[in-house]
């Protein structure tokens, strides 16, 4: 079972890319800087009306379906935005009710937060979200078992490598597919912690992706409408997508599609390993 062949992505694709977009509204900066920090709150107010629209147009230009990780309270304030993103064929996943950090919650509080966010998003789109990204990627040892118990399919919190990883703390339940995030695949690192020129950011992601593709692996990009949705930074994403699309052999897919495909692939590999042992 250890000697598995390198991953072959669907339809002969050589590597895979997930574009994940975290819709935090003001709640990311409130959780980080406090509700009284109006400087950051006003910057983050760019999220829905300007940034999100620009990113949606960019995705439409490339005919790419992305995964939107949505904060529950932002959805409650702007249900129209969730509905229109879902109607455009993008995946809606959970990203905490109000972006509170899971490492400061009890297991029961995490459970309530996951259920409340998932149920609310489901009422807006008619589709129950199957994926979860924890606010600030701060999960605890309780998070994956809870996701498994609640019937989620994927999580994007832990960088265990450059491929999906099957996590099955409860062997009697369906697994959680852990999709790899990275601090260096996050626009926050480049445009907020530093203010780098968009062309350099695109170049960084292109260098990373060239290696990912050579190794047949997966990259999960994280961007935010209030950051990459700004004029110059949106060019970083456009240049990077140009690069990836031009390669011609990359599967650009929603996180749920990657997770489902990986789960089926692992099941097939397990079955063939079992039958070769039996024979
Ligand atoms: Zn966030």
Architecture overview:
By secondary structure, this protein is α/β, with parallel strands linked by helices. It has one domain: Glycoside hydrolase/deacetylase (TIM Barrel, Alpha-Beta Barrel). Helix content is 48%, strand content 13%. Strands 1, 2, 3, 8 and 9 form a 5-stranded parallel beta sheet that branches. A 4-stranded mixed beta sheet has the order 4-5-7-6, with helices on both faces. Helix 7 links the parallel strand 4 and strand 5. Helix 3 packs parallel to helix 10 and helix 9 runs parallel beside helix 10. The longest helix has 24 residues. The chain is globular and about 65 Å long. The model has no long low-confidence stretch (mean pLDDT 95). The protein binds zinc ion. Zinc ion binds next to loops. Its EC number is 3.5.1.-. Pfam families: Polysacc_deac_1. One of its GO terms (molecular function) is hydrolase activity, acting on carbon-nitrogen (but not peptide) bonds. Keywords: Hydrolase. It is an enzyme of class 3 (hydrolase).
Question: Could you give a short description of this structure?
Answer:
This is Putative saccharide deacetylase, slightly. The chain is an alpha/beta fold.
Largest sheet: 5 strands, parallel
**CATH architectural type:** Alpha-Beta Barrel
Structural classification: alpha/beta
What's the SSE pattern? EHHHEHHEHEHEEEHHEHEH
Termini Cα gap: 15 Å
List cofactors, ions and other ligands: zinc ion
- Categorize the overall geometry: globular
**Helix tally?**
11
Q: CATH superfamily, called what?
A: Glycoside hydrolase/deacetylase
* CATH class (first level) name: Alpha Beta
Fraction of helical residues = 40-55%
**Low-pLDDT residue intervals, each spanning 5 or more residues:** none
Number of extended strands: 9
Beta-sheet strand percentage? 5-15%
Kindly report the CATH topology.
TIM Barrel
Domain NodB homology: 36-253
Protein name: Putative saccharide deacetylase, slightly
EC number: 3.5.1.-
InterPro entries: Glyco_hydro/deAcase_b/a-brl (IPR011330), NODB_dom (IPR002509)
